[in-house]
Amino acid sequence: LWKLSSTYLPNDVASLQRSLVRHVEYTLARRRYKLDTSSFYQATAHSVRDRLIERWTDTQQYSAKKGAKKVYYLSLEFLIGRSLGNAVSNLGLRGAYAEALRQIGYDLEDIMSEEKEPALGNGGLGRLASCFLDTLATQNYPAWGYGIRYKYGMFEQRIVNGKQVEFPDYWLTDGNPWEVERLDVQYPVRLFGHVREFQDPDGNTLYAWEGGEVVMAQAYDTPIPGYGTYNTNNMRLWSSKPSHEFNLASFNAGNYYGAVEAKERCESITSVLYPNDATEEGKRLRLKQQYFFVSATLQDIYRRFKKNVGRGSTTMKNMPDKVAIQLNDTHPAIAIPELMRLLLDIERLPWDEAWEITRKVFAYTNHTILPEALEKWPVPMITELLPRHMQIIYEINHRFLLEVQKMWPNDTARMSSMSIIEESSPKMVRMSNLAVIGSHTVNGVAMIHTKLLKSLLFPDFLLMWPEKFINVTNGVTPRRWLLQANPALASIYTGMVGPGWVNDLKRLEPIKTMAQDPQFRQRWRAAKQTNKQALAEWLYRSMNIRVDPNALFDMQIKRIHEYKRQLLNVLGIVHRYAEITQATPEQRKTMVPRVHIIAGKAAPGYVMAKNLVMLVCAVSEVVNSDAACRDLLKVVFVPNFNVSLAEILIPASDISQHISTAGMEASGTGNMKFVMNGGLIVGTMDGANIEIEQAIGEHNMFTFGAKADQVAAIRRKMAHDPPKIDPRLHRAMGMIRAGIFGKPDDGAYNQLLDAIDPRKDVYLTAHDFPSYLGAIAEADAAYQYEEKWTAKCIEAACSMWMFSSDRTIREYAAKIWNVEPLPFRPPR
Ligand code: 26Q
User: N6-(pyridoxal phosphate)lysine-modified residues are where (predicted)?
Assistant: First the structure.
């Protein structure tokens, strides 16, 4: 068999063409000619997939043979974006495929845009997970991502009559050539049932979780290629299906229709991705999803590890030497009691040994300190669904509280705030406390966020375990966000410093001095102009909107949330609209022509966010059809923001807005992508904006607003001593209330404006408005000096190396996981 198995496939243009035609004939079973681009996408994807698979299987076999420690990144979300472009680029085959296709009458770019992107995530957290997978492979770390293969991803957002309407995102209609269904990898997952207590022959009390229902977890694997390396990692996503026993039992019971319904319920576990909506209620299915995914994942990790146990001197105690599990927020935190259950009930280890192993295996990344966004589950719900886990959580809590009692005798306030159980009615399980207690390391995702995490969220835990809390600032992959999204800029970089910058962003630093070179600035502007032109064409083709590519392109593209303050942006736009309509011809000449782009999804149940979408659409309608604005202002709400759209928008931006109320945005990662692509930021001193400013220099960023350490005092003062409202804000609000942008019958706009009444302006929108206008005016002024502006962009973009996820992952590897790269090189 070994002799028969193939060596690596040839990658010359003629061989690629043969492979494409073979897939058309044998994989698609189609005639060779007159294929539409969509079928040719399928053939191309399969041809590329062959080339991924050989590296993938070899990498996995190699790391198994070496017995290397592996990282497991557990995330309920992966927003990987389209795969074809990423794969040909990381394989180094973009040129060869483009040529192979061109010769037979197809355009690689067209073919790439046929791919439907899997939207298996909400936003930042899911995209971060995907940037991490790219870097882990590129840096040759043995690492797997684990998640859920949702049938329906993030909903498709359409604007119907000026409002957001959600449509199901069934992303698998045309199949998914990037995944392999592993029919040999299935695990049973139990839900409900009861705990049986019994004694072993030595008189020890043991527990067994029995009864309930058992569903099967089916593995689907997707190869994750690194850039410029053979290493290809794995992303394993689970799909739920009924178990055999389940089928037999329920159908034998004679209730045919009841049995079919129960079968459907099994499959429903992995049907749909939940939005990050704090107001979301009745989410028992979400808890099922979390446990289903965690149980399958731990069985899989455990099985892989156990192949080593008994070999040599390896015992269960060595698990932390071979396994590092990173929890992407608390969503997979039920893994902590689940591993305890495996070690206690199946492996029959004593509690202390099991607990030591568990704590050495897990680490937890926190992505928010907003109290309303911290996960809590009702005790009765966990008791019903996962009775043994509830017992284990209580035992973990009991032992933990004894430690608290030792450290702070009879401090009941501390006890109750540190407890895993919130003594409310019903009682709730605080998943963040569980995650902190069960992990060896907890990290925040930007400096300010980690500082607030320590001081506001976990101050007592910090006193108990000062070493446990660290910062690892987020980063983004330069492969997708520069090399693939911005070929114009990428080729300038490669022309200046060679191709090495793609996995070593520090190499761009020397280009900063070129900011003083007028010829170089000219080339830089030409690249930006190419991208703006491309976006203008896209907007015309897909939305029938004409924008002037010479205008300043200003973007705010991210999930719609009150704390992200899209309302502040809209109020600024309305203010500008008022100024334009009142300007004299002389004044008009001094104004900077602007195109404002806003994009993002509102959670389906988040009324304020949906109101905001309505307002943006209404403002754009009025502004774009007002002759007074013709050459000075356009407002575009781009529907259905996703990774593919971001790849078109970000390279075309001059200014982007990251304007959350200080202290509320954990990090932000869009901010990093924009600056890397030669755009500048209007932003608050929040999240990673602060570190970006440090890296690129104060003179290259337009900052405004209250600082995080001032917010609380401002809110307190505001409550009893309401400040006077800024006259410009007053006018903008007046215009909206007066109905210039329509008057929705549900009072949607008034609801938005009432929330920024200076007495209860939680997000400090009114408070920050004057300084916001100041920052926008500064940006406008700077934009008018073309040469100086370009110099800023060059300096900023070439100072961004620390926001590469390559730096981020090196920190995780060194400070949290204790893993080393294991490059695989094929024989020959
Ligand atoms: C929770 C419970 C029930 C249903 C859904 C959820 C849920 C789902 C997704 C809660 C939160 C999320 C996503 C959060 C997120 O994307 N956070 C962002 O993470 C980025 C990466 O660290 C940061 O840059 C952003 O600042 C942060 O908002």
Answer: 673
Domains and CATH numbers, the chain: 67-81+117-271+283-473 (3.40.50.2000), 517-803 (3.40.50.2000)
Q: Is the CB of 276 within 6 Å of ligand 1?
A: yes
What per-residue confidence (pLDDT) applies to 2? 65
367 counts as catalytic:
yes
Distance 77 CA to ligand 1 centre (A): 9
Share of the chain above pLDDT 90, in %: 90
Q: How confident is the model at residue 308 (pLDDT cuts 50, 70, 90)?
A: confident
What pLDDT is attached to residue 227? 98
HSE-CB for 477 with a 13 A CA cutoff = 26
| Stretch (H or E) spanning 444 | strand 441-444
Residue matched to tokens 């979301």? 280
Q: Is 215 within 8 Å of 188 (Cβ atoms)? A: yes
Which H/E stretch holds residue 335?
Answer: helix 335-341
Buried b (16+ CB within 10 A) or exposed e, 143-168: bbbbbbbbbbbbbbbebeebebebee
For ligand 1, atom 15, the nearest C-alpha belongs to 125
The atom number, within ligand 1, closest to the CA of 687 reads 26
ipTM above 0.85, yes or no: yes
Substitution candidate for ligand 1 out of 368, 474, 809 with most atoms within 8 A of CB: 368
Cβ–ligand 1 distance for 448 under 6 Å, the answer no
pLDDT, position 53: 96
Residue with CA nearest ligand 1 atom 6: 276
Give the model's pLDDT for residue 244. 74
pLDDT of 580 over the 80 cut: yes
Separation CA 787–CA 640 (nearest Å): 35
Average pLDDT of the residues in 543-568: 98
User: What are 556's strand-pairing partners?
Assistant: 598
Rounded to 10 deg, the angle between the 84-91 and 124-138 helix axes is 20
| Minimal-distance CA residue to ligand 1 atom 17 | 125
> Is 559 designated active site?
yes
Banded model confidence at residue 310, pLDDT cuts 50, 70, 90: low
Within 10 angstroms of residue 441's Cβ, the number of other Cβ atoms is 22
pLDDT number for residue 254: 80
pTM of the shown model: 0.97
- 3-state DSSP call for residue 330? coil
Helix or strand or coil: residue 825? coil
- Say if residue 254 is exposed, middle or buried (CB neighbours under 10 Å; 0-12, 13-18, 19+): exposed
What are the pLDDT digits (tens) for 585-626?
999 999 999 999 999 999 999 999 999 999 999 999 999 999
The answer to whether residue 306 is catalytic is no
Establish whether residue 124 lines the binding site of ligand 1, counting it when its CB lies within 6 angstroms of any ligand atom: yes
Three-state secondary structure of 704-729: ECCCHHHHHHHHHHHHHCCCCCCHHH
Query: Is 669 a known active-site residue?
Result: yes
Strands (E), 200-328: 205-210, 213-225, 232-242, 323-328
- Give dist(CA 408, CA 398) in Å, integer: 15
Average pLDDT, the chain: 95
Which atom belonging to ligand 1 lies closest to the Cα atom of 128?
21
Residue pair 646/559 in contact (Cβ under 8 Å)? The answer is: no
Q: Identify whether 765 is a catalytic site residue.
A: no
Backbone angles phi, psi at 115, to 5 degrees: -70, 135
> Under DSSP, is residue 146 helix (H, G, I), strand (E, B) or coil?
strand
Tell me the backbone φ, ψ of residue 139, rounded to 5 degrees.
Answer: -90, 10
